[in-house]
Structures are given as C-alpha cells and as structure tokens.
Amino acid sequence: QYQDEAPLLASEVELRVCTEGSVEVHPLVAAVGWVVTLTVRDPDQVGGGAVNVTVSCLVGGDTERVTLSESATQPGLFEGTLGTTGDASHAPHQSGTLYVPSKSPVTISYADACPS
C-alpha cells in the first residue's frame, strides 16, 4: 500500500460571472440637427450611477464623450442624449454636439467593465 508523504495542497480560483453590456441609439437614422438618445444596458453596472460612451464621426473627425445616467426605475439602464450639427464651427471637440456631415457614419463605443 502506497502512502504519499507530500503535504495536501488546496487551491482556490475566483470566477467572475458577467453579463455583456449593449449599446443602442435612437433613432438609428437621424437628420443633421437632431438630438439622438444613447442607451447602455449593463446589469453589471447596477448602482454605478453613470457610464460613459464615446461617439465619433468617421468623416468629420469629431469625437464626443457622453455620460449616461442610470435610470432610477430600471437599474442597469443608462441613458443620455447628444445633439448633432452639420456646421463644424458649432461643434468643437467635446462641445456636447457632434459634427456630422450629411450621410456620414457614426460609431458609438462603450468599454464594458466586464467584457466576455
């Protein structure tokens, strides 16, 4: 009969279970001058109060960082708005209004704190 004289080792591993966040914009197609609503749904951020998204126009080069506030009635739902303009002189970087030449594509980025 074999008996191992090595000490018994125990190990622990912490596993963090996350839910992937999502980003939405309404309306999906907007005319220059409209205000769009930006929404993030991220259950991992419940109680965080706010999250940030970055909105960039690929043609005009303008980028805006928008802080979205958490809904008091729907935890994990964050919303905010961003105005658009077709006049670059009315939208310097980080002005709160995105310069978007007509028919220009726009990207919205959200850095999920717990990506999958």
Quick structural overview:
The protein is an all-beta fold and 116 residues long. It has strands at 22-26, 35-41, 50-57, 63-70, 77-85, 97-99, 106-109.
Low-confidence segments: none
**What's the shape?**
elongated
Q: Helix content range of the residues, please? A: under 10%
The proportion of strand residues reads 35-45%
Query: What integer is the average pLDDT?
Result: 84
* Assembly form of the protein: single chain
Radius of gyration: 22 Å
Reported for the largest beta sheet, the result is: 7 strands, mixed
Q: Structural class, please?
A: mainly beta
Summed up, the helix count is 0
The count of DSSP E runs of length 2 or more, i.e. the number of strands, is 7
Spatial gap, N to C terminus: 48 Å
Q: Could you spell the SSE succession in H and E letters? A: EEEEEEE
Description:
- The chain has 116 residues and is an all-beta fold.
- 16% of the residues are buried.
- Strands 1, 2, 3, 4, 5, 6 and 7 form a 7-stranded mixed sheet that branches.
- It has no helices and 7 strands.
- The protein is elongated.
- The N and C termini lie far apart (48 Å).
